Amino acid sequence: MTTATMSKPSVGFEKLSMRGVTRSYAKAAAPALSHLDLELARGEFVALLGPSGCGKSTALACMAGLQPLTSGSIWRDDVRLDTLPPEKRGFGMVFQNYALFPHMSVQKNVEFGLSMRRVPKAQRHERALRALKMVQLEEHAGKLPSQLSGGQQQRVAIARALAIDPEIVLMDEPLSNLDAALRIEMRTEIKRLYQERGLTVLYVTHDQEEALSLATRLVVLRKGVLEQTGTPQEVYTNPASAYVAGFMGYRNLFPAKVENTGPGDDISVVAHGTVLHGTSRAASGTANGAAVSVAIRPEDLVVAGQSTGNSIKAMAEVVEYHGRELSVQARTGPDTVLHLKTNEPVVAGAVLHLGVVPDRVLVYPADDGEETVQPHV
Ligand code: ADP
Ligand code: MG
Fold it and tell me: Is the confidence at residue 3, as pLDDT, over 80?
């Protein structure tokens, strides 16, 4: 292994594919993962996103070889991977709990994967040091994991994954045990390594913000089924369902009745004591009077001095100061509130007119909303 091959991006494959991958656990009624088709082109950073229990870890464990498939197959180009043991698949892996050996030095921990692969001792030492340098921990090589902070331990785990010089890195919620500040720092670190090393990454997270900032493509799962895939921009501005919208920070998700439809995808609905003009995201189920789900982002509600063409009357109820902006909960009726973000000097008790452009009022078929969650607001 020369410096040249360590520092150059790998060019050994075109794509990694999961084909119809299904995984059922013994006693569970529904499969944890159902017929997942997923293709990663070399150089992509794909984030598997969804709430707890939707099958993200199962998908990653199937890819890694830590869980057997119930059906389906996994391929790197035309090499079948799902029949190979984990260490033969050539993936670097990083998990939520760093899983470092407490009695081994940082250096030995990073060398571990190389020993497993029977790399000669002299090379092991050099490659481990190089990997530690990548995560800026070379001066800590002789320490025990317990002598490092949580962020440093996670960087050791990343160094261990990179030491085997993998083309593909699998990560399962690698930042979720870190505090907020460290999480953001490590996020940047992961992105830097991804760019510098020319890696291909499959990354599991339930954190919308993390997925948006890291990934080149998002894959949103719901109950073990792929719900939407697209670039962060596509999924963020154009969620395919109320479920995805809820996950993408459309904190205002409410039921409504269709008042009128057309032309095109124009639609008007009755909600919050008014008729609201919006954009239909449904192919069917939007007859007049039909029940629908409406999604609006807090930042798309604009505080206006008076009623405008498309606005909702509300009373500011809770006002939170967030530095650059205020986060406001505004009441529109006995059982209904809206959430908005604004730079206007809103005070609790003020009567507001909340304007919104029809483009940013997304109307979906009525959703059972069962797993619709809003992780970030
Ligand atoms: P996520 O990572 O998105 O939180 P998981 O892949 O861990 O989801 O879990 C998906 C579903 O499979 C859940 O309903 C979970 O309870 C179930 N599950 C996960 N691991 C096991 C297991 N080892 N045995 C039985 N059921 C499991
Ligand atoms: Mg998980």
Answer: no
